[in-house]
Description:
The protein is α/β, with parallel strands linked by helices.
Amino acid sequence: xxxxxxxxxxxxxxxxxxxxxxxxxxxxxxxxxxxxxxxxxxxxxxxxxxxxxxxxxxxxxxxxxxxxxxxxxxxxxxxxxxxxxxxxxxxxxxxxxxxxxxxxxxxxxxxxxxxxxxxxxxxxxxxxxxxxxxxxxxxxxxxxxxxxxxxxxxxxxxxxxxxxxxxxxxxxxxxxxxxxx
Length: 181
């Protein structure tokens, strides 16, 4: 559904590279993002553009809520939990106002759910989330530190179920503040 496939090798400019560990290809039209989660040096390779919005083609025409999140794996995790979501190519990228306007016309609520880099004093994921929320008057949903999970996919992996993710989203989108960042 999201154009993600496990791969054993890939090509860059006629050069073939073999994957040393589990590796995935994320397809965006004719462009690819290569993700090797267990590699330190070359975890990511790509020829995608900043305008390639992850998950945009899987969004419904309209809905109750949509999340702007950090990565395609978080988009897929939210989708499997019953939520619509998209991600830019970088968590440090500020969305274009036209994208936010489009989301607002299609969904009742637009939320930001970026990484909670709770172990980092500067918490860059929440810093950018705050900037986006302030710029576009959006609400932030944040995974509480107590779960020791920086993003939706880590939370589901660490808890073994999307139920805690659903609980956090439900509590924070109903206006009940169980956590403030």
